[in-house]
UniProtKB/TrEMBL annotation:
GO terms for biological process: L-arginine catabolic process. Keywords: Acyltransferase, Arginine metabolism, Transferase. It comes from the Bacteria. This is Arginine N-succinyltransferase. The keyword Acyltransferase applies. Its EC number is 2.3.1.109. InterPro entries: Acyl_CoA_acyltransferase, Arg_succinylTrfase_AstA/AruG, Arginine_N-succinylTrfase. It comes from Vibrio marinisediminis. One of its GO terms (molecular function) is arginine N-succinyltransferase activity. It holds the Pfam family AstA.
Length: 339
């Protein structure tokens, strides 16, 4: 059974393994000991921060581990409100018209405009599931456990939730979109720029990034072709978010041109359709699958398991091993989402 829980410093080696296996373009998991250690420390601080009434500088990082072997299968995270301490940049795609009635010319062109429009929003991030664990409901659990957390503890998150999707790059980490920027404005390759951003050294972005809008039709054909497109390995994650109600509102990543998708937290399908139930612990023969989390924040736990839910009494029967994984007792409450 895969169990989601807050990360701890003892998970450093596992997180480092995830960082290595995630490959190029995974900005939030750079292979850097200081950054990974700082992320764990900050997450521990955030989960234990008392009296949180609104989203702030908190960053929540969780791991999924196998309940039998204790091996870490992957990680997943949420930033409560981005951009307050470290600027968050993105490009917005807008449309303008160049028209001359006298000449009978009417050209529609698109622009990339540099900005910080997601400041203060909650970001779902750092979702990575190791290849050998990519089966069953594991991927859904790693992604949707964050929405169960938001549904149970809404005061900790912004009304707008977004995700940056990994853009197109090759096996060596070369991005067609960045290649054009590099040739015209920067003198460093994509892998280094992505790494510097991941470790928090973003000053070069503001220093070197063009401040005026960029006409997309002036970019190379290769760069134009990947704007708003995702990496092949990211397509399942994007599909999952689209089914949740996330959509791209013409914002893309400034490095690889990958799409940014967003949704009002109240309209996220897993938030809307999740529900609470009172727990009884017993063996049962139900064949219905659910994603289930406890109602604790500091000791958050989530699993995918069979459960016997009775809508009339708003109660659920959970097997003893599931209750143990969730750290709950009979009479406790859980939040559930049918699969």
């Amino acid at each position: 059974m895969l169990v989601i829980r807050p990360i701890s410093m003892s998970d450093y080696d596992a997180l480092h393994t995830c960082a290595v296996e995630s490959g190029h373009g995974f900005t939030s998991l750079p292979v850097n000991e200081e950054l990974l250690t700082n992320r764990i420390t900050h997450s521990e601080y955030s989960f234990n921060k008392p009296n949180v009434t609104q989203p702030g500088d908190e960053g929540y990082l969780m791991v999924g581990f196998d309940s039998d072997s204790s091996e870490v299968a992957g990680c997943t995270g949420v930033e409560a409100a981005i951009g307050w301490d470290v600027p968050f940049y993105s490009y917005h795609i807008s449309t303008i018209v160049h028209s001359s009635p006298k000449l009978g010319v009417n050209n529609i062109v698109k622009l990339l405009t540099f900005g910080n429009n997601y400041t203060g929003c909650s970001e779902i991030c750092t979702l990575f599931l190791r290849e050998k664990f990519r089966g069953g409901l594991n991927g859904r659990l790693m992604s949707k456990c964050r929405f169960l957390m938001m549904a149970e503890h809404p005061h900790r998150f912004s009304n707008t939730v977004f995700a940056e999707m990994r853009g197109v790059s090759d096996d060596e980490g070369n991005s067609p979109f960045w290649q054009w920027l590099q040739e015209n404005f920067f003198s460093i390759d994509f892998t280094l720029a992505d790494y510097l951003t991941g470790i928090g050294k973003k000053g070069f972005i503001a220093d070197l990034m063009p401040k005026l809008p960029i006409y997309i039709n002036l970019l190379s054909k290769e760069a134009q072709a990947v704007i708003g497109k995702v990496h092949e390995n990211t397509k399942p994650a994007l599909s999952l978010l689209e089914k949740e109600g996330f959509t791209c509102r013409n914002y893309v990543d400034i490095f690889d041109g990958g799409p940014t998708v967003e949704c009002d937290v109240r309209n996220i399908e897993s938030v809307r359709h999740s529900f609470r139930a009172k727990v009884a612990i017993s063996e049962h023969s139900s064949c219905n699958d659910y994603l289930i989390c406890n109602t604790s924040f500091e000791h958050f736990r989530a699993v995918a398991a069979k459960a016997a839910y009775d809508q009339a009494t708003e109660s659920v029967i959970l097997a003893p091993d599931v209750a143990k994984a969730l750290q709950i007792e009979s009479g406790s409450y859980v939040r559930m989402l049918a699969q």
